[in-house]
Specification:
The protein has a single domain (23-101), classed as GIY-YIG endonuclease. By secondary structure, the protein is α+β, with helices and mostly antiparallel strands. It has a 3-stranded antiparallel beta sheet with strand order 2-1-3. It has helices at 10-19, 44-51, 76-89, 92-101; strands spanning 23-30, 35-41, 65-73. The protein is globular and about 45 Å long. The mean pLDDT is 88. Helices cover 41% and strands 23% of the residues.
């Protein structure tokens, strides 16, 4: 039986490998609530799914959370520090300026 061999370029392989060691600061938005959620995680795809799952936390109220912004950081502490920094802004306007600037 013949098997198809998939070859990755060294750059693609390296990027996929390194992504296992990156941490994310992220912003979600719910149209239903018209609210933002700010967080940090190592596994961003899984975390978005968890936010949309029916649970007791703030994001469990609705299941329409969309990832609208993210930053990659080398360490968990850097991503968490960025999360705390942005949460301290307590300003929807400042948050929206950050999101728009990334477009």
């Amino acid at each position: 039986m013949d098997h198809e061999v998939i070859q990755y370029s060294p750059l693609i392989f390296l990027l996929e490998f390194l992504s296992c060691f990156m941490y994310h600061f992220y912003i979600l938005f719910s149209r239903t609530l018209n609210r933002y959620y700010i967080g940090s995680t190592e596994h961003i795809e899984r975390r978005v799914i968890e936010h949309n799952y029916n649970h007791k936390g703030f994001t469990g109220k609705v299941n329409d959370w969309k990832l609208i912004y993210s930053e990659i950081h080398a360490t968990k502490s850097e991503a968490y520090a960025r999360e705390r920094q942005v949460k301290k802004w307590k300003s929807r306007t400042a948050l929206e300026k950050l999101i728009v600037a990334s477009d």
